[in-house]
Amino acid sequence: MWPERVGALFAIGLLASCGSKSGDKAPPPPVPTAPLPGLTADQGEPAEPTAPDFPEGTRSLEMIRTVGVRLEPGDDAKRIGTIAVDTRVRWKRTANAKGCQKPWVEIEPRGWVCGDYMKPSTRLAMGREVPMLDRGELVPGIYGKVTAPNSVTYVIEKPESKKKKDKKKDPKGPVISTKQVDGAKPPEPKMLESKPLVGSVNVRQYEELTIGGKTYWKVSQKDHEYVLRSAISTHRPSLYGGARLGDETGWSVPVAFVWPRAGYQQAWITAKSTGAGVIRQVPARTPLAIAETVNDPKKGTPIAYRVGENEWIRANDVRVFQPAPPPSLLQKGERWIDIDLDNQILVAFEGEVPVYATMVSSGGKDTPTETGIYRMWVKESEADMKGLSGEDPYSVATVPWTQFFSPERGLALHTAYWHDQFGVRRSHGCVNLAPRDARWLYFWSDPQVPPGWTMAAGVVEQPGSIVRARTKDEPNPPLRGYAKKVQEARQMNP
Does residue 170 belong to any structural domain of this protein? Predict the structure, then answer.
């Protein structure tokens, strides 16, 4: 399970059917060889927490590098998150423990950070949402798919600047100047082929530049790799988004989403349940609150739904999410997610109250999403994903708002900036979300992601939200993975 394997997983990543999570962005803090303050050489237990001793006027603590957050003081404690450099946080208390020359600091809202990687600040606490969006953006940047055959990456060769020495001697003899020839331009850098791109490759644009009359995208910050702009088809992220339920709107479940009969992009709202008296058209995937159901008197199956005052829609023009009993041992008001794989509908709940609903894209025919009751394991602001589609490799760069719920299979709820087919099964096993939905769920579900955090992890002591994936054939799927451990702990300590 993740809590025991955290070091290995963050070091090598997790290859899975949907993709592999990116490696840890920050190296672990160094372990000092000398005894720590408050500890003897053979001590392993942290000292009792004490009141912090910071300079007068300290109002927050600022991160001087991206650093991990621990559940308890000590570098051997479970990791529950990562905070970005420059984030400023409030604190509660300090304690001496292993892996830190200075005391560990308990920060708000939770967790402990090594004092070696923060400094006192006279400014108020401040953290930014990660990833940050510019005004009007759906996703944090520009993305595209490499579609040209036989494409390769490039690196820049920067030739040394050639200078011509202009030696002018004064009467005393020494060289008085060495300069570039007047009017000469520095030589232009060249692009060198680096490596071939194989399979389905989606990239992010970090920079665009022109060299030798050709335009390139910079697609890697770390390796400084480039791809020809002409080889890339730019993605247009979906504008689709779900709907608020519960107290925000008065809507509840069951809830319907317009899904017209084959060949149509809209359905018709009528004045009668029989389909007579067309009032208006509604586009596909529009959410509708169900106020009443009319069933076939012989078969007992729905034939129409009332979705407003004297407004009806035919049952074969919608998909409906029907509620099911919540998982056992769900705590009062606990946030969890229910996914109807048959209808490709996700509903978020707080206890028994539905608060959000949307359409998703789960695993396709060859790579179906496995039913089960999971728990949110790791949430990353951005994650690179790699895997195989049959025998062909695929890679997807910096997927925003990714929530892994199965460490064994690498399954996640995540943004799909490369398609707009929500409602259709097409993923490699993960649950694809439109950008607006992915961002909303990322900041709503547990474990919470405070401002400035780039990663948050669920542990048994502070578990992530339940994710239930069910079908009509398996309405009560079994517990899987770390969800089992949380269940066992709650049964032992009800």
Answer: no
Q: What is the DSSP letter of 24?
A: P
- pTM for this model (two decimals): 0.85
For residue range 151-168, what is the model confidence (pLDDT) as tens digits? 999 999 876 644 444 445
Please, are residues 83 and 67 in contact by the beta-carbon 8 Å criterion?
Answer: yes
Count of the separate structural domains present in the chain: 4
Q: Rounded to whole angstroms, what are the CA distances from 323 to 209, 255, 353?
A: 52, 9, 11
Locate 43 and state its tokens.
Answer: 């001590």
* Identity of the amino acid at 201: V
Instruction: Give how far the C-alpha of residue 7 lies from the chain's centroid of Cα atoms, to the nearest Å.
Output: 20
Could you read off the pLDDT of 372-389 as tens digits, one per residue?
999 999 999 999 988 877
What are the counts of helices (DSSP H) followed by strands (DSSP E) for the chain?
A: 3, 35
- Could you tell me if 281 and 339 lie in one domain? no
Amino acid at the residue 486: V
343 & 469 share domain: yes
Q: Say if residue 112 is in the same domain as residue 150.
A: no
CATH code of the domain containing 74: 2.30.30.40
CB-CB contact of 114 with 97 (8 Å): no
Q: What is the DSSP secondary-structure string of 361-424?
A: B-B-SSSPPPPEEEE--EEEEEEEEEEEETTEEEEEEEEEEEEEEETTTTEEEEE-TT---TTS
Domain of 483?
335-492
